[in-house]
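name: query_chain
kind: protein
chains: 1
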Amino acid sequence: MLRRTFLSITTAALLATPAMADNHSMDIVDTAVGAGSFTTLVAAVEAAGLVDTLKGEGPFTVFAPTDDAFAALPEGTVETLLMPENKDQLTAILTYHVVPGKVMSGDIAGKSMDVETVNGAKAMVDATDGVKIDGASVVQADIEASNGVIHVIDAVIMPK
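structure:
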């Protein structure tokens, strides 16, 4: 029994290793799905029709709000944004969380700058004391994916 359990665990670990090795074999969407703390973000990306884009070649830098960040929005906000008639507004918000290229935290350490997001608006990134984008803190940086990088943020940022 113990031997069978050990063999099962070992086999599962060996089979899972290539798919999980630094998450480089998974794209941004699959990495977000696999993390388990971005179900609202993934649902929003699907509703906005951005899955194929974020599974594309990239590279992209995504500032990804957690489920808790979405839950902190005023009641009803997420549900309203997910309605088909609000797709343009949802797309504008989501693409504001994406910067073209792969920007690692070390690339901007000690700097403060405006960055152009995929939706065309500029966001303020301040990496002089930790990293913040438009006031949202990066709580986990540099989650690499095959087509870019994810930085986890603690708030949903809105285009100006």
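note: The chain has a mean pLDDT of 86.
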